[in-house]
Design goal:
8 helices; 0% strand; globular; Metallopeptidase_M50B; metallopeptidase activity; mainly alpha
Length: 204
């Protein structure tokens, strides 16, 4: 179990770093240099990790919930610098979960088409762990609760007459998110397990 946990943490760190760099890179492609000037367009994990989201929360979720979840420091960007003012913020937001989906698809298809089996059972277990953790990250971050990416996507499509909804979510998002993690997360796990089975052909 200790070895599984160490591998899980290492995979989580790699995955959240890719997630955050993807945010910054899409913002950079749209004309915003904020992440670049902050030194965040790098895969160096020391530039991205934080104590609660990258270490304490994964420990708590693993030992109390049996799964691994976490996040890194959000990559800064200035929405006013983006060329696409209507959808730019949503594009930056969706880049993070999309990067995790791409990682899950790449490694998952190694299992689905049998390439992973050439390297033995331990390799298959590591690859499966990469797929599962990245699916958790993608699915979790698409939930429309601030400060998760899904909220920014939601806010981009909300009509102006629903700004009260946005203000309520932004004001109470952290409390709603904590409640969700500890009391409602189990309802999301079946969806992640289904995604895992769809990609790899294996049961989670």
């Amino acid at each position: 179990m200790q070895i599984d946990f160490i591998f899980s943490i290492l995979i989580l760190i790699f995955s959240v770093v890719v997630h955050e760099v993807s945010h910054g890179y899409v913002a950079f492609l749209q004309g915003d240099n904020t992440a670049k000037f902050a030194g965040r367009l790098t895969l160096n994990p020391l530039k991205h990790l934080e104590w609660f989201g990258s270490f304490l929360l994964p420990l708590m979720s693993y030992f109390f919930g049996g799964f691994i979840i976490g996040w890194a420091k959000p990559v800064p960007f200035n929405p006013y610098n983006l060329r696409n003012q209507k959808w730019g913020e949503a594009l930056v937001a969706v880049a993070g979960p999309l990067s995790n989906i791409c990682l899950a698809l790449f490694f998952g298809l190694l299992i689905r088409f049998g390439f992973a089996y050439s390297f033995g059972e331990p390799f298959i277990q590591i690859v499966a762990m990469i797929v599962f953790i990245n699916l958790i990250l993608a699915t979790f971050n698409l939930i429309p609760i601030p400060p998760l990416d899904g909220s920014k996507i939601l806010f981009s499509i909300l009509p102006n007459n629903m700004q009260n909804t946005r203000e309520f979510l932004e004001r109470n998002g952290l409390f709603i998110l904590i409640f969700f993690i500890f009391f409602l997360w189990r309802f999301l796990l079946p969806l992640v397990s289904w995604e895992f089975m769809l990609i790899t052909g294996l049961t989670a």
